[in-house]
Design goal:
The complex is a heterodimer of chains A (795) and B (264).
Chain A (H helix, E strand, L loop, with lengths): L16 H5 L15 E7 L5 E7 L1 H5 L3 E6 H4 L33 E2 L5 E7 L2 H9 L2 E6 L6 H4 L15 E8 L1 H10 L2 E9 L11 E7 L4 E6 L4 H12 L7 E4 L15 H13 L3 E4 L2 H7 L6 E9 L5 E13 L26 E10 L13 H19 L3 H8 L8 E2 L5 E2 L4 H11 L5 H10 L3 E10 L7 H7 L7 E7 L5 E5 L8 H13 L6 E4 L17 H27 L7 E4 L2 E4 L5 E3 H9 L14 E6 L8 E11 L4 E12 L6 H21 L29 E5 L17 H17 L14 H17 L1
Parallel strand pairs in A: 1-12, 10-11, 14-15, 20-21, 27-28
Antiparallel strand pairs in A: 1-5, 2-4, 2-6, 3-5, 7-15, 8-13, 9-10, 9-12, 13-14, 16-17, 18-26, 19-20, 19-25, 22-23, 23-24, 26-27
Helix pairs in contact in A: 10-19, 15-16, 18-19
Chain B lengths: L4 E3 L4 H10 L4 E3 L5 H6 L7 E4 L8 E3 L3 E5 L4 H6 L1 H6 L1 H8 L4 H6 L2 H7 L6 H8 L2 E4 L3 E3 H4 L14 E7 L3 E8 L6 E10 L2 E7 L7 E2 L1 H9 L24 H18 L2
Parallel strand pairs in B: 1-3, 2-3
Antiparallel strand pairs in B: 4-5, 5-8, 6-7, 6-8, 9-10, 10-11, 11-12
Amino acid sequence: MNVMFEGIGASMRRKEDLRFINGHGHYTDDINRPGQLYAIIRRSDRPHAKLLGIDTKAAKAAPGVIAVYTHADMAPDNLGGIPCGWQIHSKDGSPMAEPAHPILATGKVRHVGDPVAVVIAETRAQAKTAAELLEIDYEDLPAIAAVTDAIAPGAPVVHDEIGSNTCFDWHIGDKDMVDAAFARAAQTVKLDLTNNRLVPNAMETRCAIGEYDAMSGDYTLYTTSQNPHVIRLLMGAFVLHLPEHRLRVVAPDVGGGFGSKIYHYAEEALVTWCAGKLKRPVKWTADRSEAFMSDAHGRDHVSTAEMALDADGTFLALRVATIANMGAYLSTFAPAVPTYLYATLLAGVYKTPAVYAEVHAVFTNTVPVDAYRGAGRPEATFLLERLMDVIAHDTGHDRVELRRRNFIPADAFPYQTPVALQYDSGDYQTTLNKALANIAWDDFPARRAEAAGRGKLRGIGISTYVEACGIAPSKLVGQLGARAGLYEVANIRVHPTGSVTVFTGTHSHGQGHETTFAQLVADQLGIPFANVDVVHGDTNKIPFGMGTYGSRSLAVGGSAMVKAMDKIIAKGKKIAAHLMEASVEDIEFANGEFSVAGTDKKKTIGEIALTAYVPHNYPIDEIEPGLDETAFYDPKNFTFPGGCHICEVEIDPETGVTSVVNFVAVDDVGRVINPMIVEGQVQGGVAQGIGQALLEAAIYDDQAQLVSGSFMDYTMPRADDLPNILVGTETTLCTHNPLGVKGCGEVGAIGSPPAVINAVVDALRDYGVRHIDMPASPQKIWAIINAGAQKMAAE
Amino acid sequence: MYDFTYEKPTEIASATAILGKDDEAKALAGGQTFIPVLKQRLNKPTVVVDLAKLGLSGITVTPTTVTIGAMTTHAAVADSAEVAHAIPGLAHLASMIGDWQVRHRGTIGGSLANNDPSACYPAAVLALGATITTDRRSISADDYFQGMFTTALEQGELITSVTFPVPVASSYLKFKNPASRYAMVGVFIAKFDTGVRVAVTGASQSGVFRHTAFEAALSTNFTADAIAKIATPADGLNSDIHASADYRAHLIGVMARRAVAAAK
């Protein structure tokens, strides 16, 4: 019989795709509850204004309207504001400014999109019409969108009670050591750069349905979330004051998250509260325009980076100063992103002995900013890898050799960086070598010359990176300011006839968990892939969980599954020992069979499961019936994927259009469970990285109006913007989790943007270009070429 | 969208009667602009008159003309071998409008009646000197376009077809807005025995326009070099986050030169 290999390392087709491709996915907006009402949120169209009054009379009288609520209507219930899950302390030891974040605005509105009132009606159209009838009396205030404007003297203050726009002024690293290194350095190189603000734009917009059961007092929230248990915790404990056993949160199929669906949003609390008030289910679904102004945005840094080097190009010290935009309010994990997910990565793949970084986080009249695919690590990587090429440009060192000279060597692991992290494993020379080979780096001059013959400017760019994911050890993150643990939970239920259901606290919203986890469990328990199902996304089904973000699901959630399976196997051995009249110490488990060492006696896991559930012949005095185990796994460290991305572009000098013509990624993501899924994850991440580098920008004007508030103006990458992306993997195993896995969800978005910009700068090398901020739009490149051409003509 | 009355007449006279007597009545052709506008509640018509049953679609090609019914979809024009043979630039233009779905719903009449300054068809109609036939008269292209979203059409007047003279050579090149993929600059070149006409869409604050400096140069020397030294003034051109007026002025030259080289 020809048995197809379907265990760890097999490219199994994704189980979930059958329903997705056939249009049978079941998303939150597909759910309709009996008696359901519809909520429309009236949002501020002002960036910053005093809220003087809201006249709800006409809206309340409109056809179909059940209720209209403003902050004043919610105030008697003493609800909490939207909480922040991470506290940063400034250099001086003071805690970050943590302004109130009410569900509906009170006193002031602070960004375009700030929710002001909600209208509940029998139909969505009725609610929409009524919402237009709300008369809101504003007094406009001066507004700020750019971080540089937020810290300018006399700037308008977003939160009056703070007195300035500073959220925190934090630092990490040894300043004195860095200053000393700069004082003695043979050369120093400085680069100013920005990291452009992005709008996540998951394909499915956010949606939430609140439901209240007056008989039991139970609430249910159906929501587009990456982490239903976290939402239950934050909303129940901090906002609505509901205990866990009265609140169920369900996150069914979710159409993409990229971070934007991690956070607890006001709309979730709003529909749940409204359902309780009205004793009827209430649904809110964002349209795309609403998503642009209410989903947490990503990135938005302004930085200065300086490297001190000795004469031969060895790095001595790195100094970084960053201003990070928090937006108008603190989103759930916002303070962690430009600090512990960014500045701790500034050693990168280099053995720079001293690093010092200051991060000034500021409030502005913009949508809150939080983690977006990569969360801090793309910002660190873009800064470092642009700096590498600028150092090469300014000092004349070869950009590949400069990197090689400063790499942390493969034999130096575990490696303690000067900015807190300890990398467990990696091999940056190998991923670099493979990427150089895969793109035929040495033949590039010929390709450049050939392109020149066609009138095109061809450039090649490299990025070598490391990131930290698989978040994270609870004790450590607690010390760093997290207000939650970051373990993960798995329940493995072996059914009486030997099939298995896996309940995971992670959440799949495109990652293919139903396949990867089924492969993992099937492999470890020695049963067919088809006999394992994965359940996620419901707090009433899953014991607990912290959800999916930071490429943690396999490294942390998968490790929890291994721990639960260890318990299953340990119990199975006791049952097997009883059945085969052997000592437990002599029972071995392999390939789905319990055997007695040195004999041909064996029992399959199915036979053991049946015995556990039909315990006629069973060690009932020693162990309980059943074969169902739960494990909580708390990781020992972050995981550290790394690798090399190389991009090749061609620029049309007449139009300024950049085409990505070649892209190679070689990533070390640890052990690979499903190579096809890893390839897809990397390609998706690279697509977003190319989007950031060449296309995407959330643009606010100087009045803090969102100019790129729809797909008419916000350039989402499309298929024809993207090249074939050649993905390779090189593996060093994670040393501290049982699977040796690291995580692959974000590496594409982390490694790629500087590779693209380095290629663009390389293509324009004859025009005297040292740096280009993202996105490198046709207009921007044409302006550079045009200015260069005029300069050349003048000379 | 707001509530409205929906009518789907089968006679042109019925359609024009409804549209003529009510300023707030709107005609629905392919709906590829109008439906999104309705969904965003940017328009509140009393009556929507669906033109789908008026029998206005179809393509007729003679040795000297191509006539396209107002309700003919972009896809039908793009896929017509006869159009591609007679006016290659026109078929190519239609093949690049929007996406697959838009091309199978959107119509030439709807595009021309709307006269979006970033639409492609106005460039072909103006450059080719087409004649727009309505339920009551014929309008020359030079008289039809009267600024962005403004045309010579009267209240209730319906386009029934557009007739294009067959040129010696033609081509259309579009620089797409990176986000919307509408024309940021679109240039249509039409070469006739009597001279060359050049129309530019997407670039100007006043909608599609003829580039008379390019026309004069190309009429005596139909090569890209003939216009290489002619700068297009940036005055009156659009400026937005994707393209300054200067950049648009530059792109008009680039697109025009490439269109000349590609004309067939």
